[in-house]
Backbone:
């Protein structure tokens, strides 16, 4: 066999293996995920990250058209797992993004899918099923593996709720609502956004009208349930 | 033993009697056998059954109407859906509306009493292939929902109004009159709407907006 064709074979084999990037805040979990994934001849771990920023930087460094990014739902803070999924979706539309939960409830799954995940797998499944789910995601298939698979209807319902609120509010109205979620007065919101107080109250009134609610608390509850704004600790 | 009460809703008399028989075999007391969606809704409200076996192909409306019209308290705990079709979108919709089982008439009428028992026991009964199709449908649904919400966020309230009037089939001039603005301004709004939707014609705009759920046709 000539050297060129040997190289070609090697390259072909390398390109057949599906690349995976592992994002999880816990080192021990990450190590476990990496070694589990590496047991599959069809998969290879290209990089790993412990935070959202690190994840974006390592994914940017990957020179492949399609990789699987496995995002654990446990990232906290401003740049939580949902933020990461949304950002990866925008910046790397060709990659497959899988949410990774631990007995995740349908609410978490629907929010992850709504912000841009291509599927959701759970740590609470057999290794074979886990690896098969990752491979399916590589084939551009939607996957739901683990306890959440029993709640497909509820997940869809959650997405519908997010959609129906999302459809009604403009970007500016969402901004106003997000700031209002911090519990600021109309005047403080106005200062923060650099607009007049009157504009803020107009926005708020319109938001209440669109959501069919009578006050700020009800609007926030609805927006929080739909995942438009975050209130309190990350899920 | 506690009495389990069931409602059977199916358009075709033969299908209805097959379901009826299967219910009896499964130990269910059939309290109502109905032919239409509206009768099924009435039966669920007045008889509050534990089980509803629902044929999706009813003469007056599809079976989804029954599930959608009943509120959570009125909807029986155990709902088994029967259909001639098994597309993922249909299965997903049935699951969303609270169905616990979904079988096709071609495959599911045999062994129906066993299926009814499993559904009553709290099990989800859906063929694995159909379940996978429902998950794929969920993926499409999630993507459309996300795209729809993103586009909607970018549209101003005025652009949204213009889009709705366009979808209703109004001309630019009619839209201008309706909104009390100049035709020229309407054109500007329309151009922006097209750009945000990523389309070039009115037909494309309306179809894309409907797909994304921005307007109802």
Residues:
């Amino acid at each position: 066999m000539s050297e060129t064709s040997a190289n070609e074979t090697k390259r072909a084999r390398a390109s057949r293996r599906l690349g995976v990037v592992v994002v999880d805040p816990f080192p021990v979990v990450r190590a476990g995920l990496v070694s589990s994934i590496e047991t599959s001849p069809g998969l290879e771990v290209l990089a790993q990250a412990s935070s959202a920023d690190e994840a974006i930087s390592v994914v940017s460094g990957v020179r492949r058209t399609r990789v699987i990014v496995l995002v654990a739902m446990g990232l906290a803070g401003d740049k939580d797992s949902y933020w990461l999924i949304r950002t990866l979706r925008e910046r790397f539309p060709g990659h497959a993004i899988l949410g990774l939960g631990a007995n995740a409830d349908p609410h978490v799954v629907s929010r992850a899918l709504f912000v841009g995940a291509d599927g959701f797998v759970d740590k609470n499944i057999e290794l074979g099923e886990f690896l098969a789910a990752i491979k399916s995601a590589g084939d551009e298939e939607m996957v739901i593996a683990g306890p959440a698979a029993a709640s497909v209807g509820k997940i869809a319902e959650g997405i519908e709720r997010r959609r129906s609120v999302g459809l009604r509010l403009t970007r500016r109205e969402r901004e106003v609502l997000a700031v209002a979620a911090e519990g600021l007065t109309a005047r403080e919101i106005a200062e923060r956004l650099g607009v007049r107080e009157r504009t803020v109250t107009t926005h708020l009134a319109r938001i209440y009208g669109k959501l069919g609610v009578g006050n700020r608390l009800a609007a926030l509850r609805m927006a929080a349930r739909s995942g438009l704004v975050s209130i309190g600790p990350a899920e | 033993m506690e009495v389990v009460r069931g409602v059977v809703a199916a358009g075709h008399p033969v299908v209805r009697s097959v379901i009826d028989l299967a219910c009896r075999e499964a130990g269910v007391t059939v309290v109502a056998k109905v032919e239409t969606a509206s009768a099924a809704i009435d039966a669920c409200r007045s008889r509050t059954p534990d089980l509803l076996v629902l044929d999706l192909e009813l003469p007056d409306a599809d079976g989804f109407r029954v599930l959608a019209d009943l509120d959570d308290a009125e909807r029986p705990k155990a709902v088994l859906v029967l259909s001639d079709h098994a597309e993922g979108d249909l299965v997903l919709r049935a699951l969303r509306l609270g169905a616990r089982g979904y079988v096709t008439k071609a495959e599911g009428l045999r062994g129906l009493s066993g299926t009814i028992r499993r559904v009553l026991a709290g099990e989800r009964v859906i063929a694995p292939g159909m379940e996978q199709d429902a998950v794929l449908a969920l993926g499409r649904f999630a993507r459309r929902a996300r795209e729809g919400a993103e586009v909607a966020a970018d549209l101003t309230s005025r652009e949204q109004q213009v889009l709705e009037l366009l979808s209703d089939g109004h001309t630019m001039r009619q839209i201008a009159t309706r909104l009390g603005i100049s035709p020229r301004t309407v054109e500007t709004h329309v151009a922006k709407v097209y750009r945000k939707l990523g389309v070039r014609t009115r037909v494309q705009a309306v179809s894309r907006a409907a797909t994304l759920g921005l307007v109802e046709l």
